[in-house]
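Researcher: For the annotation table, I need structure tokens for Molybdenum ABC transporter substrate-binding protein. Please keep the output clean. Sequence:
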Amino acid sequence: MFKQFFILILTTFIINSTLMAKQKPTLIFYCGITMVKPIKQMAKIIEEKYNCNIKISQGGSKDLYDSLKYSKKGDLYLPGSDSYRIKNKKDSLIIDSVFIGYNQAAIFVEKNNPSKIKDLEAFVNSMNSSILCNPNSGSIGKMTKKIFLAYKGEEFFNEAYDNAIEIGTDSRNLNRSLIEKRTNVTINWKATATWDENSKHIDVIEIDEKYAPKKRLEINLLSFSKNKEIAKAFMEFAKSKQGQQIMKEYGF
């Protein structure tokens, strides 16, 4: 009799636990690849505090926006530049945002710069093997185009892309190409050079801020979010002192 009662209690517990697991809210966070590391760290804290799951969809900023616009599913969006929010304001898919830091582009070269690269002219020098991000996909590609246009105009932009031996899709592709020594120079988001897996392989050359201005990073709340309360809590945490410390740890 006791055994049957125990089995009944255990079965009830398992059923209730399963139902609770099914009811556990799941947030979808669209995050540009460059910011994935700090966002993952913050997500763990929010998941524990609010008993939720956070699914991070990572990729190029434009690709992510196209995905959320098409699916109308998800809660938060963090592109590599606030220009994506401004440009797509007309869609009314973003209803709130918080500023959490800056992104800035720089020239990335092999460790110790064996090719003696000094400035943007390296990208039109046929002696170099460059990789550049597609200007129509990732945020760093869009920024690279702006840098070249500001530096010497459309002719320089076209020549630099024609001279590139690889076209990447996001910041991770660019760093991998340098680390694997397929190329020797690129333009990428500066924060990624500080990460452990990159710092021993890559050195940074600063670009004048008149060509490469700092870009605001903003977490955006999506209009069709089904978990707005938790999503807003994530946004508040990201701009808090603790959230800002996590951003700084990853070079932002």
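Researcher: And a one-line annotation?
Model: Residues 2-21 have pLDDT under 50 and may be disordered.
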